[in-house]
Structures are given as C-alpha cells and as structure tokens.
Amino acid sequence: MKILLNSCENVDTVIARECGPRIRTSCKSSNYLTTRADKKIDNHALFSIHNYIYYCVYLLCDHTARLFDKVRWWFFEEIESPMSCKSCKCAVGKSNVILVTGGGGYVGSHTVVELLNANYSVIAIDNLSNCFSSDKHEKPESLKRVEKITSKNIIFYNVDIRNSSDLDKVFKKHKISTVIHFAALKSVGESTQKPLAYYENNVMHANGVKSLVYSSSATVYGIPQFLPLTESHPTGQGCTNPYGKTKYFVEEIGKDLCTAYPDWKLISLRYFNPVGAHPSGIIGEDPSGIPNNLMPYISQVAVGRRDFLRVFGSDYDTVDGTGVRDYIHIIDLAVGHLRALEKISKPTFTGFQPYNLGTGRGYSVLEVVKAFEKASGKKIEYKLVERRPGDIATCYSDASFAKEELNWVAEKDIDEMCKDTWKWQSNNPNGFS
Ligand SMILES: O=c1ccn([C@@H]2O[C@H](COP(=O)(O)OP(=O)(O)O[C@H]3O[C@H](CO)[C@H](O)[C@H](O)[C@H]3O)[C@@H](O)[C@H]2O)c(=O)[nH]1
C-alpha cells in the first residue's frame, strides 16, 4: 500500500490521517499488539506501525539528503564559485584568485609568471591592443609562453576594461579575491599626442572586488621638488604629461573610495622605469610599432631593426646632459606585486597606500647605452636630438618604505637588466610575432 506523505506533516498527523485518532494513540503504546485481541484493531495497528516505520525511513532519507546538500554547497562555496568555476577550476581558495587586467602586456605577463610560481590562480584579461595574438579568440602569445615557463594554466578572456558588461561577466563567473590592474596605455610621448585615448583607457572602472593592486608610476610626482623621491613627495602638481595625470587621477579616485568605504583597500605601486626580461629569454618587452621607451629602442637597434637611437635632450642638468632614470628589472617589479598582494590580504591592512618600486639609483641615457653595449657586444649607434615634450631631467626613487612595509628590495642591477633584455631580443628579433 502507498501513502502520500506531505512534507509539512509530522508523524502524528500522518498517522491520524491514515489510521484514525484511536490507532494513533494506541500505536504509541509499546505493548499495544500483545494486549489487544481485536483483529480489526490489530490490522489497524499493524498498518499504522508499517506506516510509522515507512515515515521514519522517509524522514531519515530526507534529512540525510538535506544535510548532504548543505555539505555539498558549503564545499563548493569554499573551493570554487558556485556560479561556474567548475569549468576552469580557478578557485583553489578564496584568497588566491587574482584577476590581472592587461595580463598579456609586458609588466602583466611577467607578473603572471611570479603569481603562478607562487601558486596563485590567475584570470587574465586583455583587449590585445598592445600584445601579439595569432587569433583574437586565443590567448596572447606572451601568456602562452608564460604557461610554457611555469607549466601552469592561465584562464584568459579577450575583454576591454572599458566594456563594463564584459567585465561583469568575468566577475560573475569567477570568485576573484584581488585585482591587479595593469591595463593602460603607457607612453609619455604618445600621451601628449593622444591625450583623450589616455583619459579613456587609463581611468579605471570599478567592479565588485574591493581589493586592488594598482599599477601606478613615478610620473605622478611630476617635476621632482626633491630627490630621491619618497612617497610623501607631492603628487599631481606639475605632472608634465597626460599619461602621468591619468595615474594621478586614479590614485585620487582610489583615495576617495577608501575614505568613503572602509572595506575598500588599494595599494598603488609607483613604478620607476621597468626594463629587462624573464631570464629564460622566452618573454620580454615587445612594443607594437616604433618603441617609445628607451630600452626596447636600444635593443631593436642592437638586433638590426632600427638604424640608430635618438637621444632626447643632451642639455639637461645631469652627469652627461642626458635624462636620468631609475631603471628596475621587470622580475624585481613583478615580485613587488607579490609582496603587495601579501600585504593587502592582511586583515590589518586598510585604506589607500602607495609604494615606490625602484632601485634608488639613477642612470643617464648614455650610461644605459654603454651598459647595453657591454652586455650585448653590439655597437649602439645614436644621435643627440631635441628634448622630448613632457620629459624631465632626473627621476629616481627612495624605495625604503617598500623595504620596510613590504619586505621588498630590487635585487638586479643594470648589467643584469641589459643582459636579460638582450637574451630576449636576440632570441626573438621580431618579438612574439
Ligand atoms: O628613444 C628614446 C626613448 C627614450 N629616451 C630617453 O630615455 C629616458 C627614459 O625614457 P622612457 O621613455 O624609457 O621612460 P620615461 O621615463 O619617459 O617613462 C617611463 O618611466 C615612468 C616613470 O618614471 C613610467 O613608469 C613610464 O611608464 C615609463 O614609460 C628619458 O630620458 C627619455 O628622454 C631617449 O632618449 N630616446
């Protein structure tokens, strides 16, 4: 016989419904079957006992199923996003899924190597505007090579950070703990010619996650009022180019956010001049078109892609009249991001904090040319030309605050920067393509 059990009924109401009130009372008596002779009543009693056991089994199964369901959801909640991370297995734990915007670019790809080596799960997005990819649905070549270096998988989306609906999809799909925001245009010279493109690209779009490591720049300091530059140096005043202004604006937005919403945390890493390449020579800097920055230009002259370097300005008040910058090896810079992630994930860290990432030592353009000639064994032809608009004479860091707070110091010197740049460029004369 079948009895329909309604989930809202308790045992008493079921038995009452099926067997009547007398039996309900009787069946609760342990000696009922042995003391009653009435067959009809016995049949009723047997029937109700059967139902009772049936119902108890049902309850047991139901509770077990619910418990199992709860455990299952708790389990998935802990290790991966209930939304969909099953496909990508991105979430090893809540605190180590990092979204890297601009992941295919120079600083992005080198940082992804360090993140993967430190066992973070990486979701990379890029609009492929400044990195080579054989197909727009494919990962950029730089990230394919990062997978080769690390033997680890990167989840990649071709997403433009200005497209908020595409960004939303990524945030919904993955349980991201922190964003490292690299996606930006980065040429001082170009920014003076195409300021609108810089304001549109570089002023960030917030989305969900409230923990952000931001890729800022020493250009926020403008024309230095004192050297070396510490984090307390005024920013924004006298920013000499739109590129530097975009970095300054984002820092200001970040400060306001962190003041208004105490659950927001932002570390702004003020890069000095990143150069060099992964020591394997498998990835490196591959600007599209004519390089704007010094080191890739020199290395393209060395490899025969350009005839000579134009040295912008030889009348600055510096050691040899050429501009002085604080060059930092890309691997040191990438490791700086790991230290920043460790810092920002501490419950004690709150608000907005900038850190300089530099070596603390400046080199002139001609000193860099000399160091590169030594590392590559190639003669670098150059011509002294007019100053470049937006440039300053000298810029170098005091990075002691990063040492103190992040336990980070730049370890690689100018010779290693040139050696690794040359290894990359000579192994890949045409870059990634
Ligand atoms: O073809 C070139 C390119 C550069 N330079 C000179 O080399 C020095 C370095 O110039 P870069 O273009 O390599 O670097 P910037 O200092 O202009 O800017 C760089 O450093 C900034 C911080 O100082 C930011 O990090 C920014 O992203 C990064 O491009 C400058 O004196 C510049 O005039 C040349 O002489 N010829």
Describe the structure.
With 433 residues, the protein is an alpha/beta fold. It has one domain (47-281, 323-363, 387-427): Rossmann fold (3-Layer(aba) Sandwich). Helices cover 42% and strands 14% of the residues. The chain contains 15 helices and 14 strands. The chain has helices at residues 11-19, 21-27, 32-35, 39-79, 106-117, 141-150, 164-173, 188-193, 195-202, 242-260, 294-302, 330-344, 365-376, 400-406, 414-427, and strands at residues 97-101, 121-126, 155-158, 178-181, 211-217, 265-271, 273-275, 309-312, 324-325, 327-329, 351-357, 363-364, 382-385, 394-395. The strands form 4 sheets. Strands 3-2-1-4-5-6-11 form a 7-stranded parallel beta sheet, with helices on both faces. Strands 12-9-14 form a 3-stranded mixed beta sheet. The protein has a two-stranded parallel sheet with strand order 7-10. Strand 5, helix 10 and strand 6 form a beta-alpha-beta unit. Mean pLDDT is 82; it is low at 1-41 and 68-93. The structure holds galactose-uridine-5'-diphosphate.
